[in-house]
Amino acid sequence: MSDSDIIQIRDLKNSFGSQVVHDGVNLDVKRGEILGLVGGSGTGKSVLLRSIIGLQQPVAGSIKVLGHEMIGKDPLTMRMVSRHWGVLFQESALFSTLNITENVKVPLREYYPELGDSLLDQIAGYKIAMTDLPEDVGIKFNSELSGGMRKRAGLARALALDPDLLFLDEPTSGLDPVSADAIDALILGLRKMLGLTVFMITHDLDSLYNICDRVAVLADKKVLAVDTVENLTKFDHPWIKRYFNGPRGRAAAESFEARKTGA
Ligand SMILES: Nc1ncnc2c1ncn2[C@@H]1O[C@H](COP(=O)(O)OP(=O)(O)OP(=O)(O)O)[C@@H](O)[C@H]1O
After folding, report:
1. pLDDT tens digit string along 17-39?
2. For labelling, which of 14, 115, 142, 155 has a CA lying 20 to 30 Å from the CA of 174?
3. Residue with the nearest Cα to atom 7 of ligand 1?
4. Does 50 sit in the ligand 1 pocket, CB within 6 Å?
5. Residue pLDDT, tens place only, 81-120
6. Looking at per-residue confidence, does 256 or 128 come out higher?
7. pLDDT at residue 3, as a whole number
8. Looking at the predicted structure, is the pLDDT value of residue 138 above 70?
9. Is 39 near ligand 1, meaning CB less than 6 Å away?
């Protein structure tokens, strides 16, 4: 594992009964990069994410995070390594009975039970501010927030423990284009400010062009290619061609070019 790799996956196999989802997945995620993961529906993007963060037990293979083998890990190692990552789940997964401040305090309480409530409130307030949410959001509940605000609140909780690594499951799904652009800008800003590595499942072609350093394509039960979007558009595989060179892919490419030239 090279020093620059924060995640290294080798020969990963996942199956459910007779359904093989992954059959020899290999992938390296480099420290400091934003890596996008794409693939058709049901190709196993979420199963891959769940395998990395220990919510899915693979059949075979190796997953190293920060140099620690995650498969077959003991609960203590798992707890020690998971302290270094934050996860934004697709529906943000905020606790509906807790306000946003209390949600952000959940991981803080788990890892720092000795800290007093007023200090936890301050830290939570700081994390909420980092995601550009107004201060009064802290006392609101998930049901009182817009879709974009929920994503930001989920991000605030994912940042609670000052992670090195951020896992995002479709951070812009369900958002209008302006809110999606704002979330992309926030992810870029957080990466710069905190030196994060970001592993992001997305279907959002604009996000792939605008913020991902590299994109991994999951198809045929494997990671078929990992490269810049520009290079992937030239890749000779039927799904990759359809994905990047179809009408939506071309529109995203044109919009990216227009942004670059300021048109
Ligand atoms: N706990 C489970 N039990 C049985 N099958 C599962 C389980 N979790 C996932 N699968 C199956 O594994 C396959 C991959 O699912 P996964 O959710 O990873 O797809 P995905 O690529 O994230 O899809 P989408 O883009 O539609 O969210 C699917 O066929 C799904 O039905």
Report:
1. 999 999 999 999 999 999 999 99
2. 14
3. 16
4. no
5. 999 999 998 877 888 899 999 999 999 999 998 999 999 9
6. 128
7. 61
8. yes
9. yes
Q: Is the per-residue pLDDT at 13 higher than 60?
A: yes
Is the pLDDT at 11 greater than 90? The verdict is yes
Reply yes or no on whether the pLDDT at 260 is more than 90: no
All domains of the chain in start order, with CATH: 5-84+164-261 (3.40.50.300), 94-147+155-162 (no CATH)
> Integer distance in angstroms from the first to the last C-alpha of the chain?
43
- Global confidence as pTM: 0.92
Question: How far apart are the C-alpha atoms of 241 and 94, rounded to whole Å?
Answer: 37
> Whose CA is closest to atom 30 on ligand 1?
42
Ligand 1 atom at shortest distance from the alpha carbon of 39:
21
Give the distance (Å) from ligand 1 centre to CA of residue 188: 28
SS (H, E, C) the chain: CCCCEEEEEEEEEEEECCEEEEEEEEEEEECCCEEEEEECCCCCHHHHHHHHCCCCCCCEEEEEECCEECCCCCHHHHHHHHCCEEEECCCCCCCCCCEHHHHHHHHHHHHCCCCCHHHHHHHHHHHHHHCCCCHHHHHCEHHHCCHHHHHHHHHHHHCCCCCCEEEEECCCCCCCHHHHHHHHHHHHHHHHHHCCEEEEECCCHHHHHHHCCEEEEEECCEEEEEECHHHHCCCCCHHHHHHHHCHHHHHHHHHHHHHHHCC
| ipTM field | 0.97
